[in-house]
Specification:
about 180 residues; about 20% strand; globular; single chain
Length: about 180
């Protein structure tokens, strides 16, 4: 789970603490990976609905690849689910589907309805991530650059790829939760 970042488009608001549909985004993300043997959250510690391991990227604000690198230091499983905290529609069924589709390829990610790949909603073979990071400086690197040579399966999922990057996104997603009664 990636909870760091400066949330500049949200005026520095702590995304994990944002409440959507009556629940904090971090708790929604934790529910989505409830079946995991272990859960590592990269970001500042806070109260959660269940026990997790915490770590921080160094230096702070190094971006999502720096956060992935920090989390990987604690991973002992062959597969790593990478989930940005700001995807409130990702649930356990979505994560289960991603994991079920991960076979021989290096990873499975989601794509939104505009064709944009959401690299922070996916499952990756842990060793592939470690190899891609080997000898590279993760600070400021884009996830696309990190996994550029990966064999990826992409699943279309317009709903699960809705994120909360701006206040407009937050209001839109909150409205969707209100009308869907999720």
């Amino acid at each position: 789970m990636l909870c760091g970042g400066s949330a500049r488009r949200l005026d520095g608001t702590d995304k994990g603490a944002l409440v959507i549909g009556g629940r904090a985004l971090l708790d929604r993300a934790l529910d989505a990976v409830a079946g995991a043997r272990s859960t590592i959250v990269v970001g500042p510690q806070r109260a959660t609905t269940r026990a997790v391991s915490w770590t921080l990227e160094r230096p702070a604000g190094g971006g999502p690849v720096a956060a992935i690198a920090a989390g990987l230091k604690l991973v002992q499983e062959p597969v790593s689910v990478v989930l940005g905290v700001d995807f409130p529609f990702v649930d356990q069924a979505c994560v289960d589907r991603i994991l079920a589709d991960l076979t021989e390829q290096d990873g499975v990610i989601l794509r939104d309805d505009t064709g944009r790949h959401q690299f922070l909603v996916g499952a990756y073979k842990t060793e592939a991530l470690r190899t891609a990071l080997s000898g590279r400086e993760p600070h400021g690197m884009s996830v696309k650059d990190l996994i550029g040579d990966f064999d990826l399966l992409t699943l279309d999922d317009p709903r699960s790829t809705r994120d909360c990057d701006t206040w407009e996104d937050v209001y839109s997603v909150e409205a969707a939760f209100s009308t869907e009664a999720v």
